[in-house]
Design brief:
Elements (H helix, E strand, L loop, with lengths): L6 H10 L3 H28 L7 H4 L2 H21 L5 H17 L3
Helix pairs in contact: 1-5, 2-4, 2-5
């Protein structure tokens, strides 16, 4: 018989892992870069400033790239810490836990 686990079990295991703060930091970099890029592109577009000001949006690209690289490193560490969980579940649970923690009211 299969041992069924719920999503909250996976989220809890990921949140208790020692490398979860690295995944959270990667999420902050990535989502912060995306918000910066979308927000500045919206402002430049609505204000009608023109093409030279779209460099404000392009300045967010390094944050997105660093966030992706940090996420890959954090995922590999999480996979080593949680060998009983499938790789796909580790990554999905870390993304969901990170989003929940970033959006949670403080």
């Amino acid at each position: 018989m299969w041992a069924l686990t719920t999503d909250s079990d996976y989220l809890g295991q990921v949140r208790r892992a020692g490398s979860y703060p690295q995944a959270l930091r990667a999420g902050r970099l990535y989502f912060g870069g995306l918000l910066w890029m979308m927000g500045s592109a919206f402002v430049v577009s609505c204000a009608g400033w023109g093409l030279p000001f779209f460099w404000l949006s392009a300045a967010a690209i390094p944050f997105i790239v660093v966030g992706v690289l940090a996420a890959r490193k954090a995922w590999s560490r999480l996979e080593r810490e949680l060998p009983g969980m499938p790789q796909r579940e580790v990554r999905s649970a870390s993304i969901l836990a990170t989003l929940q923690d970033l959006l949670r009211r403080r």
